[in-house]
Amino acid sequence: MKISISDLKYNEKVVYGLRSLYKKYGYTQYKMSKFEEYDLYVRNKDFLMSDSIITFTDTNGKLMALKPDITLSIIKKSKDIPGFVQKFYYNENVYRVSKGTNTFKEIMQMGLECIGDLDDYCLSEVLILAAKSLKSISKNAILDVSHLGILSAFFDAAEIDEETRTQLTEYISEKNLSAICKTCAQKGIGKEKTDMLKKLVTLYGPAGEVMPKLRRIADGFKDKTPFEQLEKIINAAGDEYKDMIRIDFSVVSDMKYYNGIIFKGFIKGIPTSVVSGGQYDHMMQRMGRKSGAIGFAVYLDMLERLKVSQFKYDEDIVLIYDKNTDIKTLKKAVEELSQDGRSVTAQRQLPAKLTYRQLAKIQDGEVKILETND
Amino acid sequence: MKQMINIALPKGRLGDKVYDIFEKIGFECPSIKEANRKLIFENEKKGVRYFWVKPSDVARYVERGAADIGVAGKDIILEYEPDIYELIDLGIGKCRLAVAAPKGFHDDPQQTLKVATKFSNISQKYFSSLGREIDIIHLNGSIEIAPILGLSDVILDIVETGTTLKENNLEVIETVAPVSARLIANKASFKFKNTQIENIIEGMNSFLEAEAKTKPEAKK
């Protein structure tokens, strides 16, 4: 059977495109069962996007869950081998509570994980693959990148306690300067440090424009390693992505799990991020691993919001026949009309509300075109 | 064609004040002042499109990207917790979220506290932070009447001057959070329409700074 690319739905085309992209870079597909032991998720609840999980008791009495996440399962099966990196991609359904309806939804998620003895090349490869993933969906895409090492170095230098860190991180993600200033003042964080944080939060734009300003901010830090790493990794992406990759410190993640490079990808026409990822060495440590890890997920369900004008017509051809039409003639007519891949529905009456490119009728053993809409 | 910025304004007095600021910083749209029932107004030359929506819906329009930016009260942001950028505290529409009760009310910690409010999420979070068990009675208006009729023990609502409370023999027993109008932006729009949004932020900030200088008492 010949399958034409035009037969595929928009989401399916995206999935095939991403699969071949990830394979090209040596990522192998990770397949898993629908269920995983509940224990895995309950220990790492904050790592998950929603904390509601569908559970059931298996025949052996174990409490199981319909997987709300793939990354944890991949970490569980990973091994620490010095000098070695495991590269996986996945395309699986996950079960989460949707924010709008507050009910469980099956969501198709695609993503990749690079786990093991990471170096800067691995980090830049994953960042580039995130950028390429976005580009394969739309030319009008932006990938915002941040480095959690910079934020945590700032928090350490200002000796900020855990509770205030969490609070400030939330305000940073909202670019909420007034709340940042207020909190800093309440906690006795000096003007110089507050101004530095404000500068970091308001910094936004392509690396070429932002980097010189960021270097000036870096002068105020003892350890410049995270700044240098961020610059190195973004530079490795090359000129092709110089407008698409932007620096934005409002991209934050839970520092209990994440460290280093983190990023979020946006596509014009979709109001929320469609790609989200980063380095999660802290999560690896929590699960007893010595290795590092970085990965990202592409939220394919979000792509529905892109107005892709694919379904202008329900059918290409509606073929009308009557009770006197010879079955063999009808069969031949359907086969001939559908030969070049067009869809043909044979009906005795024109169905109400059906949209079609052509309306045809069998009359005296011949196909007659009655109406053409295209 | 110039890329248009969609701006959601809250219907009512606050919205009028907010539009005046937009006008003063050079994003005027004269048709908005014409007396008619239109809800959407455009000034193509300036690249702005304004629309009036219910104040409590502004955050939704912005979060879902139907509006690129908007102005919403902090109360609405706290209640709906939208995933948006909260860019500027405009310092107008100032009031507070507070718990009020009939004068002389004594809270019996042995009993579940009945709270009438339209801010169910805020109430839940606030009282759970105090470890207080509550029963929420979600109302859509005339909240002050609830304790008078015995529907609830207390209310959690917006308090501006306190006159309505006084007239109904109620008093504030706890302030939950200060409220003022905020300029908010959709996260994706902020990236794709960055130059225009940054221009608006810059204009607003300079306007607020100038205002604060002329009226020192209006300082945030």
Can you describe what's shown?
By secondary structure, chain A is α+β, with helices and mostly antiparallel strands. Chain A has three domains: 1-137 and 268-312, Bira Bifunctional Protein, Domain 2 (BirA Bifunctional Protein, domain 2, 2-Layer Sandwich), CATH 3.30.930; 141-257, BirA Bifunctional Protein, domain 2; 316-372, no CATH class. Helix content of chain A is 35%, strand content 26%. Chain A is built from twelve helices and 16 strands. In chain A, the strands form three sheets. Chain A has a nine-stranded mixed sheet, with helices on both faces. A four-stranded mixed sheet of chain A has the order 14-13-15-16. In chain A, helix 4 (120-137) packs across helix 10 and helix 6 (162-173) runs antiparallel to helix 7. Chain A is elongated and about 90 Å long. The relative contact order of chain A is 0.13. With 220 residues, chain B is an alpha/beta fold. Chain B has two domains: 5-93 and 180-219, Periplasmic binding protein-like II (D-Maltodextrin-Binding Protein, domain 2, 3-Layer(aba) Sandwich); 95-178, D-Maltodextrin-Binding Protein, domain 2, CATH 3.40.190.10. Chain B is built from eight helices and eleven strands. In chain B, strands 2-3-1-4-11-5 form a six-stranded mixed sheet. In chain B, helix 4 links the parallel strand 7 and strand 8. Chain B starts with a strand and ends in a 6-residue tail after the last helix. The mean pLDDT of chain B is 92. At the A-B interface, helix 7 of A face strand 5 and helix 7 of B.
Secondary structure elements and pairings:
The complex is a heterodimer of chains A (374) and B (220).
Chain A: H1 10-24, E1 28-29, E2 35-37, H2 38-42, E3 55-57, E4 63-66, H3 71-77, E5 85-97, E6 104-116, H4 120-137, E7 141-147, H5 148-157, H6 162-173, H7 177-186, H8 191-202, E8 204-206, H9 207-218, H10 225-237, E9 245-248, E10 259-267, E11 275-279, H11 281-286, E12 292-299, E13 315-320, H12 327-337, E14 344-347, E15 356-363, E16 366-372
Parallel strand pairs in A: 1-5, 7-9, 13-14, 13-15
Antiparallel strand pairs in A: 2-4, 3-4, 5-6, 6-12, 7-10, 8-9, 10-11, 11-12, 15-16
Helix pairs in contact in A: 1-4, 4-10, 6-7, 7-8, 9-10
Chain B: E1 5-10, H1 13-24, E2 40-43, E3 48-53, H2 58-63, E4 69-73, H3 74-80, E5 85-89, E6 95-102, E7 113-117, H4 120-129, E8 134-138, H5 145-148, E9 154-159, H6 163-167, E10 170-179, E11 181-185, H7 187-192, H8 194-214
Parallel strand pairs in B: 1-3, 1-4, 7-8, 7-9
Antiparallel strand pairs in B: 2-3, 4-11, 5-11, 6-9, 6-10
